[in-house]
Write a structure and sequence with these properties.
Growth Hormone, Chain: A; 26 helices; 3 strands
Length: 579
């Protein structure tokens, strides 16, 4: 999730509610721009359900985990480029035009995916959507923060974060709604074009950010917009504050001494204070992804199927739990982050993540060991569709997991799904096989095996989300908004965000391949190991920034005896001079 330097408190939310009635234009502005957050969240969640039905329609996708991963991850790859291009476009053409362009990309991507005749066209549409998501993810909160009254800025930026998790939850509901409609995944992916179109129309009626206009020396235009945001008696003061802020920002940028992108990057890494902040910020962002969260958000229904639930609609319905808990966790984090601290929340969060990843690993291991046998008589019952790799005469007893590893499908026992079932041929002739199996009231398994442990996996998955969302879900973005000096905040925040997106790409592009290569249980063990490493690194290198002014953070990071794990009270007593 995108974070910002300003975090909302309860007073701001009360003020926001009050101003919503007295000056509804402000809420209209925030909600219109916030649709970008909704689109960001929707795309994150919708592909998890659509993938189930894309596999059914395109057999080459069913057979290739790499193709499935590519369909999911190309949006992330597009987002990396979109975020980088969006930064330039924001500065050159303004926030409003950048959001409008993101809407065009998102709408085009949705239409391309909905009409796609081939998996390659779906991937093309995913790249378009990713470009739009990358631009919207950085532009929407920026536009809201610059075009909102300072009294309620934190609340309105937080609203954008809530719309992201709300978009994820909405995507699961829409996925579930279209499970019995002809064209399933086409509707799931195509309907995303509607909010993009709505936002495009709304943004045409809204002004540019007054801050951007002022920086472009369009001061009269900036003043006109401020008059719509603030009461008339407050406009002169706000205009003066805007002038001071922009002049200070330009002066700070000049103190870096480098004006090229590469020069700024080099300067950041060679300045000890900034390098310490960058190491901490990038560790937080990479850890957020390598604890495995987007395997859950992008592949939740597939994970549910791996846990033993064969039905696509059942997998989607149960996946609502993860999305709903993630949304609740985002609300909870708004309460605890300024009370417990960022560092402490991340450490507690990672402890819970490690525990529940270990439980998930144990559940999937037990499920594979206890998976039903492949019965000779059961398989012979479907003699025309027998898996070519299965040879009962060899004397080797196959289980359901062996059948799936051979890229065949498992048809459960008619009387009891935990008893011996049939191992049927590869997906080339999938539909007649599947029909023959299901016509006898049996379940058809291609991802996981029948199991009594499925409910334990769901509980562990829910507990994992509860552990992740309030801590590792939001704190890394907050730390990154607070840990860099003002003059380096843009370039360092950008590098950390790219690290987050690249880590996201690596995880989403490899998850299904890992489950095939080393098994689902070992894949979760791997994520648990990454989380242990992240816990150690965060303990060693990430300081607590709760309640510290930017100047104090800068002094702390500059100190010769700086140690991230020292408590704030000890640090203030022994290292920081009194201000």
């Amino acid at each position: 999730m995108e974070g910002g330097p300003h975090k909302a408190d309860s007073t701001e939310f009360k003020e926001c509610l009050s101003l919503s009635f007295t000056r509804p234009y402000i809420l209209q502005l925030a909600l219109s721009a916030g649709i970008g957050g909704l689109l960001f969240g929707y795309d994150t969640g919708v592909i998890s359900g659509a993938l189930l039905y894309i596999r059914d329609d395109f057999k080459q996708v069913e057979r290739s985990t790499v193709l499935q991963e590519t369909i999911v991850s190309m949006a992330v790859a597009g987002a990396i480029v979109g975020a980088a291009f969006g930064g330039w476009m924001n500065d050159k053409f303004g926030r409003r035009l950048s959001i409008l362009f993101a809407d065009v990309l998102f709408f085009a991507g949705a239409i391309i995916m909905a009409a796609a005749p081939l998996p390659g066209i779906i991937i093309l549409g995913r790249i378009f959507v990713g470009l739009g998501v990358g631009m919207a993810s950085m532009t929407a909160p920026l536009y809201i923060s610059e075009a909102s009254p300072h009294k309620i800025r934190g609340a309105l930026v937080s609203l954008n974060g809530l719309l992201i998790t709300g978009g994820q939850f909405l995507s699961y509901l829409i996925n579930l709604a279209f499970t019995r409609v002809s064209g399933t995944w086409r509707w799931m992916l195509g309907i995303a074009g509607l909010p993009a179109l709505i936002q495009f129309v709304l943004m045409l009626m809204l002004p540019e950010s007054p801050r951007w206009l002022y920086r472009k020396d369009r001061k009269k235009d900036a003043e006109t917009i401020l008059k719509r945001i603030y009461p008339a008696d407050e406009v002169p003061r706000e205009l003066d504050l805007l002038r001071q802020s922009v002049e200070s920002e330009i002066a700070e940028e000049g103190t870096i001494g480098e004006y090229s992108l590469f020069g700024k990057v080099r300067k950041a890494w060679t300045t000890r204070m900034v390098r310490r902040g960058l190491v901490a910020g990038i560790i937080c962002q990479v850890a957020q992804q390598f604890c495995g969260i987007n395997t859950v958000m992008y592949y939740a229904p597939t994970i549910v199927q791996l846990a033993g639930y064969a039905s696509n609609s059942t997998a989607l319905a149960l996946s609502l739990i993860t999305s709903g808990l993630n949304a609740v966790g985002s609300i909870v984090s708004m309460y605890f982050v300024d009370r417990s601290g960022r560092r402490r929340l991340m450490i507690i969060s990672l402890c819970g993540i490690i525990l529940w990843l270990a439980v998930l690993s144990g559940v999937f291991y037990a499920a594979s060991v206890k998976s039903p046998d492949v019965g000779f008589m059961e398989t012979q019952h479907f003699s025309n569709f027998t898996c070519p790799a299965y040879n009962a005469a060899s004397g080797i007893q196959w289980r359901c997991v062996d059948c799936l590893k051979a890229e065949c499908s498992f048809c459960s026992n008619e009387d009891n799904k935990l008893r011996a079932g049939a191992c049927l041929a590869n997906p080339e002739a999938n539909e007649p096989m599947k029909h023959a199996c299901q016509s006898e009231h049996r379940d058809w398994y291609t991802q996981g095996c029948p199991s009594n442990f499925g409910w334990v996996a769901l509980v562990a998955l829910a507990a994992y989300i509860i552990s992740y969302s309030p801590g590792m879900g939001t704190s890394p973005w907050i730390v990154n908004s607070e840990i860099y000096p003002l003059r380096f905040r843009g370039i360092c925040g950008g590098m950390a965000a790219v690290a987050n997106w690249v880590s996201n790409l690596i995880v989403t592009q490899t998850f299904l391949s890992l489950t095939k290569a080393i098994g689902t249980a070992n894949t979760f063990v791997l994520f648990a190991c990454y989380s242990i490493i992240a816990l150690v690194l965060i303990f060693l290198f990430v300081p607590e920034t709760k309640g510290l002014p930017f100047e104090e953070v800068e002094k702390m990071m500059s100190d010769d005896n700086y140690k991230a794990w020292k408590t704030r009270s000890a640090y203030k007593k022994h290292q920081l001079p009194e201000l």
